[in-house]
Amino acid sequence: MKWKQYGIGFLVLMAVCLSGFGQTAYAAEDSQDVIVDGVTIGGLDVSGMTEEEARQTVEEYFDRFRNGTLRLSFNGTIGEIGFDELGISWDNPEVVAEAAKCGQNGNVLERYKILTQLKTEKKEYPIEYSVDRSKVENYLLEKAEELKVEPVDATITKEKGKPNFEITQSVTGLTINVSETLNHVMDSVDHEWEGGVLSLDADVEITEPKYKTEELELITDCLGEHQTNFNPSVAGRSQNLVNGTHFIDGVVLMPGETLSLYDYLYPCTEENGYKSGIAYADGGYVDAIGGGICQISTTLYNALLKSELNVLTRSPHSMTVSYAEPGFDSAESAGSKDLSFENSTDYPVYVEAWVQKDRVYTGLWGKDDRPDNRVVKYYNNILSRVGPGEPIYTEDPNLPEGEIHYDQPAYDAVKAELYKQVIIDGQVVETTLLHTDRYRASPAKIRVGTGAPVEEVPVEEAPVEGQENPEG
Q: From CA 124, how far away is CA 432, in angstroms rounded?
């Protein structure tokens, strides 16, 4: 009896289920011309639409991408291009047909299963699109060429003997990193862009010029200057002074940079503009191409002392010079003696050097932040001085008998110290020994004529000491 009751109930339940299934299946059969509920394409709900209506809806939606714009900022300069020019395309238009078939294929049980799932979980069909990478790259290459800016250094010039400078405008360099920007654009298109305007910053490399206008404009003060005299009638030596000062005039040193005179003055060759002049060698005079450039080194050394820039290397002459006191000179000799220094300030330093009439001038310009109540002075202390000994006479048959020619003046042997004093508010607060120099003695060298006598034998007076000395 109970079995019969249960059997009858089971049959009733099956009937109800089959009735519902039949209604669902019938509904599916009845709606094969429209997309079933719960189907989306690219986030668009296309439920109840025909396949053509769904295609039109997706096409209209894709117009957001097709008509979109790529807007790139190239360090503040904006560049725009439409994605239609970059080859954007809808890559899977067949997705509409696939969505339209959802819940329409298979037997009754398969369709019923899909339709049941759609009531709790929507079926999403993605829209796939792409941008032509080569077209994006070509666009970036064009912009890179169009917007590329080479860095340009500011230049600084100064009129001789005047404190005013003329400074040109520097330019910051700009280069577009095409590879990095291309990767950034393509990644953003794939993962971030939702159509419309895609705004991105291009990968831009900035190259600052070495010499910036605003930095060179800080050069306003003379840190130290000095001048020495020479005999302009000695043509070769005078030309060497003009030539050598030209090489260093206008040099700019940024903070921490160094200058070696050797790097600027050498090689001492005729091709480099030098003439033959007297130089020191082996305790006497010799003719040498470039003779006299040591006077430039000495003049600059004294300007350096006054500027208090950091002197790295400096050597005295083998003998004293006429244009500087012992201890205040500086010699140049290829491979052994060189004046070099460092810009030990926090600002650019401008080197000025020129020759006018009988003067060699050097000056160092920058920004002087030393206190007004602070003064520096330098003085030498002669420890010893020994005479040169008797002159050396040489007979010269090419000179008329009795004629005398002075080839070289006499030089004392000298030992000297150089001191630096720092004075604040009129009081000496510091005294420092900078160096001790030794100069060798050299006797006067005189030629005496032994040739045929002449009616009147002019006697040549001894030259002023050092007038033909290229180092002093």
A: 87
Judge residue 8's burial from the number of C-beta atoms within 10 Å of its C-beta, 0-12 exposed, 13-18 middle, 19 or more buried: exposed
Q: What is the pLDDT of residues 330-375, one digit of tens each?
A: 999 998 999 999 999 999 999 999 999 999 999 999 999 999 999 9
List of E strands, 172-264: 173-176, 197-201, 204-207, 221-229, 252-253, 258-260
Q: Each residue of 146-171: pLDDT tens digit? A: 999 999 999 999 998 888 999 999 99
**Contact call for residues 232 and 238 (beta carbons, < 8 A):** yes
CA–CA dist 130, 93 (Å, integer): 13
- Beta-carbon count within 10 A of 353 CB: 24
Beta strand 197-201 with 69-74 is parallel
The DSSP bridge pattern shows strands 39-41 and 77-82 to be unpaired
C-alpha pair distances (Å), 147 with each of 36, 79, 137, 142, 175: 54, 10, 15, 9, 8
CA distances from 59 to 65, 68, 90, 280, 459 (A): 10, 14, 9, 93, 113
Put the strands of the sheet holding 349-356 in their side by side order.
221-229, 359-366, 349-356, 252-253
Q: Which residues of 74-91 are buried (b: 16+ CB within 10 A; e: fewer)?
A: beeeebebebeebebebe
Contact 472, 317 (CB under 8 A): yes
Task: List strands edge to edge, sheet with 404-408.
Answer: 392-400, 445-451, 404-408
pLDDT of residue 111: 72
Split at pLDDT 50, 70, 90, the class of 118 is confident
Q: Return phi, psi of residue 23, to 5°.
A: -65, -45
> Tell me, what DSSP letter sits at residue 270?
G
Give yes or no for a contact between 81 and 146, defined as CB atoms under 8 angstroms apart: no
Q: How far apart are the first and last CA of the chain?
A: 141
> Which residue, chain included where needed, has tokens 């003064």?
375
Reference 261, options 297, 288, 298, 226; nearest CA is 297
Query: How many other C-beta atoms are found inside a 10 Å radius of the C-beta of residue 2?
Result: 6
**Least confident interval from 24-28, 113-117, 225-229, 281-285:** 24-28
pLDDT tens digits for range 433-470: 999 999 999 999 999 999 888 765 444 444 444 333 33
Q: What pLDDT shows up at residue 116? A: 79
378 pLDDT more than 60: yes
Beta bridge partners, 222, equal: 365
